[in-house]
Amino acid sequence: MSSLIVSGGVVVAAMDLGSNSFHLAVFRVRSDLGLEPIAKEREMLRLGERVYRDGVFNDEAIQEAVATVARFLSISQSFGAEVVVAKATASFRDAENAQELIDAIHGHTGVKVQVISGHEEASLVFDAIRAACHLGSRPVLGADLGGGSLELMLGDQRQLIAGRSLRLGVGRLRAKFGEDNVPALDNYVGHELQEPLATMVNYHPTRLILTSGTMNAIGRFALSLDSEHDELDDGLLARTVSRPALEEATSVIRATSVERRNSLKGIDARRATTVGFGAVILGHLLDAISVDEVWLCSWALREGIVLHEAESQEHFAFSINRSDLRADSVRELMLRYRVDAAHANFVTRLALQIFDALVSMHGLNAEARQRLAVAAQLHDIGAFINRDEHDRHGQYLVTASPPRGFTRREIGVVGAIIGAHTKGEVVVPADLGADDGYEIQVGAAIVRLADALDRSHQQLIQDLHCTVSGAVIHLRLRASSDLSAEMYALRRKRRLVESILACQLHVTISDATD
Questions:
Q1: Which of 44, 46, 51, 417 has the largest count of CB atoms under 10 Å?
Q2: Cβ partners under 8 Å of residue 368, min gap 6
Q3: Eight-state DSSP code of residue 116
Q4: pLDDT tens digits, residue range 28-37?
Q5: Quick one: residue 136, left, alpha or beta (phi over 0 = left, psi -120 to 50 = alpha)?
Q6: Which residues, 6+ apart, have CB-to-CB distance to 252 below 8 Å?
Q7: End-to-end distance of the chain based on CA atoms, in angstroms?
Q8: How far apart are CA 8 and CA 245, in angstroms?
């Protein structure tokens, strides 16, 4: 069990009583609209396989489930959980004696279990995906694979367009087909996916997003084929994996015996008997949609439960603006680490003006502009730890507690810009490329200039006009107050931009009354 205790807010514990595993997630819902993870726990019970074999929860399954919920409740209470929510999924929907287990859990622990429908499950999972990943305005396809069902979700950053729950969980398939009947399994999965995928593919999804344990296990193995690093342990809520790596991973998993699958990186012994069914399903998904980009999301049903509970109760006064996830998450970090918002927003505005004026010199695109804006807003975040070397502390905070909706690469670029904005010493992370390194240099140079232009933190400049003439950048400033502190800082911080862009910076100042 991993934990992180923070102060303030209301502690919510969510139990996801799934067909393959029971999950616990404890979060602190803070007054600044943030979710702070406190503890996570998982117990792989595989109740679904027993239900799909016998039709009921047997006595052993009931005892194990009750004991697990009791343990989860004890953990939740140890962290001061004020709200405990438990939602059950496919195996509870299917078992003839589900109510017996629900009553047993309530009688022994006091926890009330709510059995949710497949559509409710898809909706909660997609809420978690939208709160963790920046989806944009074009539809994406989400896939959440559990022990009893596969949830397919089509939507964008604003809304869930369509959600389907299919009886294709790995436990259900294992009970139905065993380990050896691969041709029949392939045919069955293809038939069951044909109609829902045909409908969703008509929306031309631009990305496939995979979540939950089985899919993330396959993704972890696929990432290991591209890199020596286990990127699923980097603290990010979302990361990208290449389609070729996933295709290779599914092929290798299907060709590897159950006994040897736990030797594949990222796949432990508990997943060895079920990950092959996930590989079959993922193979059909990849065949059906023509996307080059696949994301792995570490948030799923349990986080969706927390979000729903927090937003549905008035005393939380909580809401995540999923339509602008990145901006909302950056604001969340600024509040958490007490960033001077007036200075940060002013520096961001100046940095973007300079970036736009110098496009002909640096040649960076709109995505780089967005990353520059994030770095500018968070450039002083490290002062929360210590004003001295706040650039280094800032890079650490951004990479250790990354804002939601950004990829690992994007966080690396933003963090490196922050880490270089004070001293101008650019260090490119080893896992980034040459293009990223150039973007970091330009970004750091521009943030250094913009930061210098508010050295007093008084937002004295009333107008900035930046133009390019040959190899000269003309910076014309209008201000009604003395800019001596800004000019002192500018003399120290201009060298990086002049060096990187092979130019000279010429600054003129006029009185705002002129």
A1: 417
A2: 439, 442, 443
A3: P
A4: 887 655 678 8
A5: left
A6: 221, 264
A7: 65
A8: 42
